[in-house]
Amino acid sequence: MRYLMLMWADADAASGDKSDFQAWVDFDEQVKAAGTFVLNGALTPAATEARLVQTSIAGHALDQAVSQRPFAEGERQIQAFSSWSFPT
Fold it and tell me: What per-residue confidence (pLDDT) applies to 15?
């Protein structure tokens, strides 16, 4: 069975301190050592003017790229994700 963890933070949150980073590194090593790691990553904060640009939908090219902006506003946003797979 696969699990997805979404990590939320305040939209204007800083990255944290060294102890926060070390705790994540330790956890990540344990997950990988257990053989359950699938994928993880960080998302670009909405404050960076990030945008999703689609150039095709279901294999059909678009005449012009479609820019989807703005993202949903809010005080808290998804900052990162991690996915694991466990035997059932």
Answer: 60
Could you give the angle at the alpha carbon of 28 between the alpha carbons of 47 and 3, nearest 5°?
80
| pLDDT tens string 29-81 | 999 999 999 998 887 766 666 555 555 556 665 555 555 555 556 677 788 88
* Amino acid symbol at 49: E
Between the alpha carbon of residue 22 and those of residues 2, 16, 39, the distances in Å are: 25, 10, 19
Range of the domain at 62: 2-85
CATH number at residue 18: 3.30.70.1060
Query: Structurally, how many domains does the chain consist of?
Result: 1
